[in-house]
Amino acid sequence: MTTSTTSTQAQIFPGKGLGFITLGASLHNVLTRVKSYPQTYPAIDLAYSPADPLRKPVVLQLPSNGLRLRFDGPDQRLRLIEILDFSRVNLVYKNQEVLKGGKSAEQTPSSQGPSFRHVYNRLFGPSYPGEYVPPADKSPYGTYVLSYPGIAFSFPLQHSAWSDQCDFVALLSSSAALPATSMSIYQGSSWPEVRARIFTQQPQYPRSSALIGKSRESLADEIEEWQVLGAGKLEVFRRTGFPLVITLGETTPQDLIADFGPPDAIYRKNDRRISIHRAAGGGDIHLSPSPGSIPDADHSSNNSVTDDSDEEMAAFNIGDPTSLPAECFLNYFHHGFDAFISYPAPPGPAFPNSGLPDPLPQPSSSQLTVTKIILHGNVPGSYPFNRHRRSRWTIPLNDSSDHLNSESPYDEISERLRAIWKGSYANSTEERALQRPMVLNRGWGDSPESSVEFLGGWEETTSKGHRTSVDGQDGGLGNTEMFGFPGLLFEVLKNGAVSCLTVY
User: Fold this and answer.
1) Which range, 203-217, 415-429, 488-502, is most confident?
2) What is the pTM of this model?
3) Residues 48, 390 contacting (CB under 8 angstroms)
């Protein structure tokens, strides 16, 4: 990898990727890699829908490198790689430069790419006919898209010269066609064949390029989805391995490390400022029909990479659970979750009508266990964006086909869960307290990593708890609202997207 923005060399792998950028890779993985080369990638633009960031595509543009990367919204996986300026990157295919012999004296603009002759005769060989897209305005040029398996080129073509009766090879070899203006890399046999399902088809390659070609024994299998079953149980579906079950209060740190590998970081610091909210009106406010307390959801990796965590890392071995402090968070950034390690505590109750029994009281034990799981949404525009890759989850309700998921707007989640838990609270005061949003600000203080403030209310929240902001922006403060249900704590952005789900 060179440091010049105009001479970066990138190997083309049709249907797979460009250089280290692999189709199917997570937004977290790609953005983290790109940001680690600031001289090579000096400009990074991220575009997303502020109102609907989890269902609309996310676009990562690298203007200094002529690249545009398109990710789907729900899973945040790379679906399309586009080269928009051939002068910004030195493309190589099987050790041959893509632009070699591709320019003529008449075509001087530096952004133009290879000629049709060069693509057809020297690089990729014969192809089936492509498709012609007429100009949308009064431009004299339409676009001819020439597709190969996993790769396509767009050539400007004089609209007056186009005829579906013409031989496309002769037509694109004539003076009526200009060199390619863009190139796309995708998964599929041709662009017309995959265009309609490019953001929904199952990616062939994993979210992390480190997993490509590796055996299960060398690296932990990646997580596809979490299923929150209630009663402290979560089922983890993986890319290739069998599903796993995590039981809060029983699963040990050793179990986590055996299944998911060593954590990326360990965080020990506890912030007890939330404890003031554990009592109101002289009595305890419970988050479940059984006695409990508000979980410490302001910890986890939102505070894991600065403060005293670096010093604590040297005090114990990440891969050795016996050296862990009494209470800590295991941060799995590349898996998209954190686990709170503590002494066994009663988890949340079973969902009504789920068929699961309520958890039994935990016996006193000195064995450290997982007592909370924090699933991160990696929502664009949120304060902790790109610290974790996105975790997807489902909450089954009445049957396997009826469920809430990580893309559900919180208003829908709240309505469904209120109906399920109605009548299960100790009293009406407890139910009202749970539905009143608590505002969490992660953006104030001397250090962004240590600035966790609970503001207790929000003037922009209506009496029904709906976010009133139409653009989903938080004014730079990083404010989110927190809502609790038995065993669940939702951190919600003003646009209704769930930024984080804590299961306890």
Assistant:
1) 488-502
2) 0.82
3) no
